[in-house]
Amino acid sequence: MSSSDPAGRGLAAVADVPPVAQAAVPTVDVDRSDPEYRAWLKEAVRKVQADANRSADTHLLRFPLPEEWGIDLYLKDESTHPTGSLKHRLARSLFLYGLCNGWIRPGRPVIEASSGSTAVSEAYFAGLIGVPFIAVMPRTTSAEKCRLIEFHGGQCHFVDDSRKMYEESARLAAETGGHYMDQFTYAERATDWRGNNNIAESIYQQMKLERYPEPSWIVATAGTGGTSATIARYVHYMQYDTFICVPDPENSCFFDGWSNHDPAATSDCGSRIEGIGRPRMEPSFVTGAVDRMMKVPDAASVAAVRALDTALGRKAGGSTGTGLWSALKIVAEMVEQGRRGSVVTLICDPGDRYLDKYYSDAWLAEQGLDIAPYSAAIEQFLRTGIWP
């Protein structure tokens, strides 16, 4: 069911509000020079920045490969953030961006269109600074993600069609006088891609003492596109020779939009791999910064994430499997070409959020997904070095 408005206005009335095509900057309804507001703003920014100081860097794990290949595969484990996913970095950046722009205001809700992990992290930061939070999400979002949003003090507002999340979020912001965070527009500009301990800088710092410290490839899946943009821009800014690959799941338009140079590309149904893949080309997906994309079957994503559990004893979400499948294919190409080097991909979030999906054989059967051929392909490759 839809949540009630934390400001007490009642979101049931939102259905009568005309759709809003684009999130609008909140109306100036506070005196920006008011000492009380400035004191609140300073304290809110301090709290968000203090969260970063309390958080140690995430681990860089090695995926076991035969030594004779001369190739190292790493996974940066973003599931160890306080809110359990890569989106913790994004949420922190978006909150600082919104606060410093004067868009997030005391007592007014922050609203986000999210399939889950971003909403979990944003609920955490909203609670940290004491503002209400409403997540607009597909009704199919995992129950565990919904529980986590509510655990952090947020409220869930469901839509039946994932393509309607944007306008519904903007509509709620107009009704409540809140701020629509709009991660899909602001992700790439809210993150400081030149440094400031972003994920790319962290990867290169952690790779310094490895035998191949400059990765041949970094593989990053895309939801907003903010992570791939941050990593790619940092690589170019620092003049590294690393290439960036973005894998895309089924039911997502990013691959087609990138391949055909079509900024208007769309997909007419939502992604089954939560957190990545979009029905439209998002403003934060910077296509010009990406060197390569791969289209990954959903069954392959699930097979890969289960292979990760077998290899490292770590369960992760489906988006991690999408990235790992592509990273393994890149490793296979390097083996075939006799090249040595390193490849880095990401553990985006923990698998305990998806036990009823990617780790459920009943869910796979319901979705018509057969992972057996893909599991066999991974097993054969790791055993022989030859991709089927």
From TrEMBL:
<dbReference type="InterPro" id="IPR036052">
    <property type="entry name" value="TrpB-like_PALP_sf"/>
</dbReference>
<dbReference type="InterPro" id="IPR001926">
    <property type="entry name" value="TrpB-like_PALP"/>
</dbReference>
<keyword id="KW-0963">Cytoplasm</keyword>
<comment type="function">
    <text>A cysteine desulfhydrase that generates hydrogen sulfide, H(2)S. The H(2)S produced by this enzyme stimulates respiration in M.tuberculosis, mediated primarily via cytochrome bd with a lesser contribution from cytochrome bc1/aa3. H(2)S modulates the balance between respiration and glycolysis, and also contributes to redox homeostasis. Probably eliminates toxic levels of Cys (which can induce oxidative stress).</text>
</comment>
<dbReference type="GO" id="GO:0030170">
    <property type="term" value="F:pyridoxal phosphate binding"/>
</dbReference>
<dbReference type="GO" id="GO:0019450">
    <property type="term" value="P:L-cysteine catabolic process to pyruvate"/>
</dbReference>
<dbReference type="GO" id="GO:0016829">
    <property type="term" value="F:lyase activity"/>
</dbReference>
<comment type="similarity">
    <text>Belongs to the cysteine synthase/cystathionine beta-synthase family. Cds1 subfamily.</text>
</comment>
<keyword id="KW-0663">Pyridoxal phosphate</keyword>
<comment type="function">
    <text>A cysteine desulfhydrase that generates hydrogen sulfide, H(2)S. The H(2)S produced by this enzyme modulates the balance between respiration and glycolysis, and contributes to redox homeostasis. Probably eliminates toxic levels of Cys (which can induce oxidative stress).</text>
</comment>
<dbReference type="Pfam" id="PF00291">
    <property type="entry name" value="PALP"/>
</dbReference>
<dbReference type="InterPro" id="IPR050214">
    <property type="entry name" value="Cys_Synth/Cystath_Beta-Synth"/>
</dbReference>
<feature type="modified residue" description="N6-(pyridoxal phosphate)lysine">
    <location>
        <position position="87"/>
    </location>
</feature>
<protein>
    <recommendedName>
        <fullName>L-cysteine desulfhydrase Cds1</fullName>
        <ecNumber>4.4.1.1</ecNumber>
    </recommendedName>
</protein>
<keyword id="KW-0456">Lyase</keyword>
<feature type="domain" description="Tryptophan synthase beta chain-like PALP">
    <location>
        <begin position="58"/>
        <end position="349"/>
    </location>
</feature>
<dbReference type="GO" id="GO:0005737">
    <property type="term" value="C:cytoplasm"/>
</dbReference>
<dbReference type="InterPro" id="IPR047586">
    <property type="entry name" value="Cds1"/>
</dbReference>
